[in-house]
Amino acid sequence: MRRSLRLGASASLCAALAAASGCHQPRSAAVPQKAASKPPAHAVDAVSTLPTYWFNDRAGPGDAEEPDGSQRLLRGADRVLVSPAGSVQVSSMRAPRDLAGGVPVPARFGGGFVFWTGDVLYRSRTYLGPLEAVAPIPTNVLGVAFGGDSMLVLSEGGYRRQHRLEQPARISLTPRGVLDTAASDDGRVIALDAAGRALVSIDRGQTFRDVSSELSDIVELHGEASAAWFELAGARAAFLMPSGTLEQRALSTPTAPKHADPSASEIAS
Predict the structure, then answer these.
(1) What is the pLDDT of residues 196-207, one digit of tens each?
(2) Beta strands in the chain (DSSP E)
(3) Helix or strand (DSSP H, E) at 21
(4) Distance separating alpha carbons of residues 67 and 44, to the nearest angstrom
């Protein structure tokens, strides 16, 4: 079964950040992103004392944009919003070190964003809001994945760490040996583990069922507000239904393959 692990921040973001933050590019880069329109040149000039990086996320339509169309940028230790008219807002609270990435937090966790430097994971209730330390991280973060009630941090060298966001705490990997996960807001969770199994849950990850025999050639995991589904090769998908069954359908717009997953021998809890 071919698997791949999604990145909470694209490989292109890591490439752009390499010089300033030590973020290493993953083994391959094929994360489809909506092309964000660039802000006016004078707006970028206004925040150019350090290299300016596009804030890339995979939230779906409107990636890297606020509802009003403002562009999200990361610039060193600052978070920046550039409005369609070119005005610039900068976060009042700077991170202690350069920010290496960030992704939106799903509504079931209260929304907002998580950001990370080379050694600490943070949460902010709004894009420019105060940073709340969530946890130290042992090595550069490649991305994050949100499960039913916790967040999986994917780091270099195959490291995985699982954390709760409310009353932040590190917890045991659930399911055991999890490599990637995705979920919907109503408690449906899908996951891949180091044993090569595809797992599903309809109770926010309290119990899992092995559905490996029902699936083949898994390409990617997807979690949305009202859906959790496995993307399969051949432009097909298997959606986890509220009943716990899988429903396979054709994809009208298949996504590009992602990078290969690390071997089980690289996983450390």
Answers:
(1) 999 999 999 999
(2) 53-54, 71-75, 78-82, 88-90, 101-104, 113-116, 120-124, 132-136, 141-146, 151-155, 160-164, 169-171, 178-183, 189-193, 198-201, 209-210, 218-224, 227-232, 236-240, 246-250
(3) helix 11-21
(4) 20
Query: Measured between alpha carbons, how far apart are the two ends of the chain, in Å?
Result: 23
Helix, strand, coil shares, percent, the chain, to 5: 10, 35, 55
Hey, what are 142's tokens? 């490649």
Concatenated DSSP letters of 162-189 = EEETTTTEEE--SSTTEEEEEE-TTS-E
d(CA 116, CA 153): 10
- SS3 state of residue 232: strand
What is the pTM assigned to this prediction?
0.70
Rounded CA separation 83/65 (Å): 10
Could you tell me if 229 and 240 are in contact, meaning their C-beta atoms sit under 8 angstroms apart? yes
DSSP-derived secondary structure letter, 69: -
The span from the CA of 168 to the CA of 4, in Å, is 28
Distances (CA, A) of 118 to 77, 135, 141: 11, 12, 7
Residue type, 79: R
Which tens digits make up the pLDDT trace of 16-48? 333 333 333 222 222 333 334 444 444 444 444
Beta strands per DSSP E along 12-70: 53-54
Tell me the two tokens of residue 247: 């429903």
Which tops the pLDDT comparison, 265 or 59?
59
CB 75 within 8 A of CB 44: no
